[in-house]
Amino acid sequence: MLTGRRYRLKLTPEQAEACGEFASACRFVWNCALEQRREYRRRGDWVNYAPQARELAEAKREPVLEWLRVAPSHILQQTLRDLDKACRDHGTFKVRWKAKHRWSPSFRFPDPKQMDVERINRKWGRVKLPKLGWVTYRSTRRLGGAVKSATVSFKAGSWWVSFLVDDGETTPEWHANPAAAVGIDRGVAYAAVTSDEQFYDRAFASPGEVKRYRRLQRALSRQKKGSASRGRTLARLRRLACRISDRRGDFTAQTAHRIATGNAVVVLEDLKTKNMTARAGERSVAAKSGLNRAILDKGWHRLELALASKARYTGTELVKIHPAYTSQTCNACGHLSAENRESQSIFRCKDCGHRANADANAAKNILKAAGLAVSACGDLDIGRSVKQEPVASARIPHQPGPPVGIPRL
């Protein structure tokens, strides 16, 4: 099974300069090849990877473009392959340019035969890359398999290497707990709430970091574009944003591990996060931008990706259902009304009087929409019998405690 391993690089000044030159060459090739593809499409024609690779080889022999020879040939060819795939998947005119000030420098070495990886000791390892030589990296975990490719990228003031590794694992035919199923409701108060009333959440930025981030944003708005002071402020903002993003990634990985390990079926709402966080129109701009920030901060899509990745190792089946009315429907009697949800956290059915935490009620509806809910006296669709629950228990509203297992700052 293919998986990723990411490590921080410790480069010499010469190697760091070379990495910057390699990344600039890849950006130049991407933008030129994309412009050529768009021009062909305007004329009603098409160009793919093969002719562009031949033209790249010819262009490197031109005196004005001989600086492209600094970069290894196969990382430039890999850039053309990535562009070809992006154009086929998304359309030529929807693929974005790699602008200098909005693009994180990166390039990929696709051939494992041109790389050697060695472990120096428990703390450090090194990899031999074409035209870079031996590069040291901070070894935080073992590779655990054969390296297929290596991607070098720049983020928040540091260079990183990501290895694509074949770890030899296979997806199990049966889950360790085949009778377990769970529905997950993603929200803005709690990142994830399950149908068995587990609440997963944590703060990704401390109050001091939030104040510092806003102060840096205000300073950035007053600084002249292209100035040295603006560059330093941007670097501070990126380092801070990187720490917050790493915490979010750690949270989603832990949460996905616990949910996928304990359940054979995980049901999610089929949410289009990109569309939900699109920029608002002229009305309610402030409210919409606040909602967008809350959705992005909780990492809805990142949790979905983490669950899909972990499911490969546990044999968990990931099911998506239509999200309509899951938060307005009573899980006890099925009554649908917008008035059922009295507030963000309180759900009170206007028909039967059932009370519950609103997110937990929605998670149970999500599980029921996939055909896996428990009836009053019936069986689970996946083959497990249960006893009838006491009627009184459905009337007691659940008061969520602290989120399970995930430490707050």
What keyword list fits this structure?
single chain; 409 residues; alpha+beta; seven-stranded antiparallel sheet; five-stranded mixed sheet; 14 strands; 18% strand; globular
Describe the protein's architecture and organization.
The chain is α+β, with helices and mostly antiparallel strands and 409 residues long. Helix content is 38%, strand content 18%. The chain has nine helices and 14 strands. It has helices spanning 13-42, 49-59, 73-90, 207-222, 228-262, 273-276, 285-298, 300-314, 358-369, and strands spanning 2-10, 106-109, 116-119, 124-129, 133-138, 146-155, 158-166, 181-185, 192-194, 199-200, 265-269, 317-321, 346-348, 355-357. The protein has a seven-stranded antiparallel β-sheet with strand order 2-6-7-1-5-4-3. Strands 10-9-8-11-12 form a five-stranded mixed β-sheet. A hairpin with a 6-residue loop joins β13 and β14. The protein is globular and about 80 Å long. The two termini are 34 Å apart. Residues 374-399 have low confidence and may be disordered. Residues 300-366 form the Cas12f1-like TNB domain. Residues 173-278 form the Probable transposase IS891/IS1136/IS1341 domain.
Distance between the termini: 34 Å
H-E string: EHHHEEEEEEEEEHHEHHHEEEH
In terms of per-residue confidence, which ranges show pLDDT below 50 for 5 or more consecutive residues?
374-399
Number of strands: 14
Beta-strand fraction estimate = 15-25%
Write out the strand line-up for the largest beta sheet, numbering strands in chain order.
2-6-7-1-5-4-3
**Helicity, as a percent range:** 25-40%
> What is the number of domains?
2
- Average pLDDT works out at 88
Count of DSSP-assigned helices: 9
Helix/strand class? alpha+beta
Q: Specify Rg, calculated over alpha carbons.
A: 26 Å
Describe the main β-sheet briefly: 7 strands, antiparallel
